[in-house]
């Protein structure tokens, strides 16, 4: 992948974003990293990935907050932006709990069956495996994910908070029994539990509460981490989008990995690494390993 590091010296932040948008729209570079070291000459400018590696290699309590973007390279479309799911279907008609309760058959046919087909095929990509490697290196503790695809666990992370639940399980609307999605018979839509109740994914629909334990633990991990890596989220959906603010308010260093700026980028990110997680993470890992190997 083409990679370019651009120093927008002495330019206002908003103008940097404007330039980036033009570069991206003209497909000049697939992956652009902006650096904000305004007072340094270009030849002394540190590569932001090297700088992120310095921070991460010396961290003991790093936490990651991930969103749909980290799974794009695994073939799972995001919700917002180009190719996003919510461009094609209205989330209020298919992803709101009221829509499901009104017409579970339509929601199963339009959204859930399609999700199952896509998620069944998906495998972890270097974005996920990079986070698992950071756990093995003793740097990363918890992954807070908004994703329901289970790819962090498949990659090898052992402490994953599934903020919006998990697609791996279905739950009965009547008796609350949980059944693995892989064991659900889809011959009849919507599928039913053995008690006769309708099954729903064990995910959080719009209009529902975040599971209290996931919310409490996420807030705690955010408040106590030294570094938060925010990867592949548009940071548009609360309360997940509030976690980086909790981290920042408690002194954490915020590293953001995303090909596009987000509402966090200009407000609280200490180090935005602009690019796909699948391409940034391997480079970051290599730089972290080099630091750990040198005495
Ligand atoms: P979004 O679809 O809102 O945002 C995806 C983000 O990933 C965007 O900021 C993209 O720029 C970025 N992105 C795209 N490709 C990427 C790549 N290769 N590497 C890294 N980043 C990339 O997804 P979320 O922020 O996760 O909730 O959305 C949050 C919640 O909104 C979801 O959990 C879901 C949705 O509605 C519910 O369904 C309750």
What does this structure look like?
The chain has 295 residues and is an alpha/beta fold. The chain folds into 3 domains: 1-45; 48-76 and 125-164 and 210-295, TPP-binding domain (Rossmann fold, 3-Layer(aba) Sandwich), CATH 3.40.50; 78-121 and 168-203, SIR2/SIRT2 'Small Domain', CATH 3.30.1600. It is built from 11 helices and 11 strands. It has helices spanning 13-25, 48-57, 85-88, 91-94, 97-102, 104-121, 126-136, 151-155, 212-224, 243-249, 277-293; strands spanning 3-7, 31-35, 62-66, 140-145, 160-162, 165-172, 178-180, 199-203, 227-231, 253-257, 271-273. The strands form 3 sheets. It has a 6-stranded parallel beta sheet with strand order 5-4-3-9-10-11, sandwiched between helices. Helix 2 (48-57) packs across helix 11, helix 7 runs parallel beside helix 11 and helix 9 (212-224) packs parallel to helix 10 (243-249). The longest helix has 18 residues, at 104-121. The chain starts with a strand and ends with a helix. 38% of the residues are buried. Mean pLDDT is 88; it is low at 1-42. Bound molecules: 2'-O-acetyl adenosine-5-diphosphoribose (OAD). Residues 67-70, 72-73, 78-81, 84, 91, 95, 146, 164, 204, 206, 232-234, 236-237, 257-260, 262, 276-278 line the site of 2'-O-acetyl adenosine-5-diphosphoribose.
What's the structural blueprint in terms of helices and strands?
Elements: E1 3-7, H1 13-25, E2 31-35, H2 48-57, E3 62-66, H3 85-88, H4 91-94, H5 97-102, H6 104-121, H7 126-136, E4 140-145, H8 151-155, E5 160-162, E6 165-172, E7 178-180, E8 199-203, H9 212-224, E9 227-231, H10 243-249, E10 253-257, E11 271-273, H11 277-293
Parallel strand pairs: 1-2, 3-4, 3-9, 4-5, 9-10, 10-11
Antiparallel strand pairs: 6-7, 6-8
